[in-house]
């Protein structure tokens, strides 16, 4: 028996769905951009973020690399949504999971302010996805997708 969740029953255009998700995240996200626990601990929000990210991954993605605040939580959510393995790098540089040279990865983060680890140059990064809190006190959040088209670049 398949159970359909209420949010799956109604089609909403991307702009409406993303605006609603942004408003929900913004309502819980404090002014400290690194304090993501309030919205990441809400399954209904985390599930929607993972779903939006999953729909923006390249089809040949091998692994998810999550960076920065909440990296293990965000990486886990997207891994569960896609079935892809993940590696998480916390703000202190500690690594949870594994990565392998030459993998095609999608990088996910919060606020796009995380530093790339040194071993990043051994990977093919095809996509970066991030959740960004609006600047200047605006009460909204946006999801940004950057297609980097860096596949096949030479590694040193």
Instruction: Tell me the strand order in the biggest sheet.
Output: 3-2-1-4-5-6
Order of helices and strands: HHHEHEEEEE
| Helix segment tally | 4
Quantity of strands, as a count = 6
What fold name goes in the CATH topology slot?
A: Rossmann fold
Q: What is the CATH domain class? A: Alpha Beta
Tell me the domain tally. 1
**What is the assembly state of the chains in this entry?**
single chain
Mean pLDDT: 77
State the end-to-end distance.
51 Å
Description:
- The protein is α/β, with parallel strands linked by helices and 156 residues long.
- The chain has one domain: Rossmann fold.
- The chain has four helices and six strands; from the N terminus they run αααβαβββββ.
- Strands 3-2-1-4-5-6 form a six-stranded mixed sheet.
- The radius of gyration is 16 Å and the shape is globular.
- It starts with 13 loop residues before the first helix and ends in a 9-residue tail after the last strand.
- The C terminus is likely disordered.
